[in-house]
Amino acid sequence: MTAATNERPIIDPGHQLPEHASEAHGHKMGRILFWILLALAVALIALLLWRHSKNATKPPPPPPKINITTATAEKGNIGVYLDEIGTVTPVYTDSITSQVTGPVVAVHFKEGQLVRKGDPLVDIDSRPYRATLLQAQGVLERDQNLLAQAQMDLERYRQAWARNAIQKQLLDDQEKVVLQDEGTVKNDQGTVQFDEIQVGYCYITAPIAGRVGLRLVDPGNVVQSAGTITLAVITQVQPITVIFTIPEDSLGPVVARLHQKAKLPVDAFDRTAQTKIASGTLLTLDNQIDTTTGTVKARAVFANKDDALFPNQFANTRLLVNTLQRVTLVPASSIQQNGSASFVYVIQNNIAHIRTIKPGVTDGGVTQVEGINPGDIVATSSFDKLQDNVAVTTGNSGGNDGGAKGTGKGGDKGSKTGSSGTSGSKNK
User: Fold this and answer.
1) Is the pTM above the cut of 0.70?
2) Which residues of the chain fall below pLDDT 70?
3) CA–CA distances in Å: residue 204 to residues 108, 232, 339, 373
4) Which domains does the chain have, with CATH numbers?
5) Residues 301-310: pLDDT tens digits?
6) What is the rounded CA–CA span in Å between residue 277 and residue 315?
7) CA quadruple 260, 261, 265, 266: dihedral positive or negative?
8) Which residues on neighbouring strands pair with residue 84, listed in sequence order?
């Protein structure tokens, strides 16, 4: 009996394993690969969770500061204006026509000439009228002498009647003759005066001082008495007025100032409302409101020494109704709207704070406000980025650039706009 041995059988390399042994080896390698991949996935997840937790413990970076420009609210004066449209209107305009019939013998003026009152303008042939005047003067002299003769006879009759030399009837008749002659003389005197006026009409002079328009007649033209032919047109240009309209809603403050005997300044601007032409004062208001437009006419007078205002010229007028003294002023660009509420961003320690305000009169980019104090710094830009309690950096030093300036009599210089009352809205 052979003895058992512990030696493992030697497998021949060329000998192939059975099929079930190969499958078991493949399953073993697959499990090893699966566990390796699982370990890598767990490690990756752990790494991501560690990084996330590390980033979560860090504070978020502060938001970048907003760069803005600012202005300083200031105390000053601001004017309450009414901006309206008007027309330059001469104080007097005379269209001169002929009062007599006859040919024009002379034209003494030049087109566009400035004439004084009484300067000769046009001469009409006066010879027929002087001849008629001479006849009337002759009749007057004859009747005056007849009257003198009748008065002498009356005096003689009185003396004779005192001596009882004549009858009373003769004296009475002579008295009536004297009265008749006196009436005839008066009639002759009226005829002479009328003819003198007719002769005077032949020499047409300027009834007012002003500028003559274009020549409308020439020497040799025949004009008719009480005709429709205009010989010359004279317009007074120094002084000159501007007529404009005021809404009835804005009439109260103006009337109140006029009752105080205040001289309200009026500035006339060109069609673009950018260039001031002249300065004057309010002269008067019309005596009734136009019910179709709800406005009342006003007339302002201007010296017009430089002839800057021309008759019938269109003009934009600015009537200074009142001046608000020592109020808080800010640039109008700093005011923001949230529905019906108005607010500004007040900058304190480089932090923007919303401050509700009540805007009033606006004058050329400057607005009178209530709700902030003079010296407060307000933002004037970057409103699309600004919020309450947001850090900012200013683009101008100290917020003085673009500060508000007031306007008014004797106050700081302001720019121009139109506003009415305390609303600051422009009336047209």
Assistant:
1) no
2) 1-26, 54-63, 396-428
3) 10, 10, 69, 69
4) 63-91+238-428 (2.40.30.170), 92-125+202-235 (2.40.50.100), 126-201 (1.10.287)
5) 999 999 999 9
6) 9
7) positive
8) 317
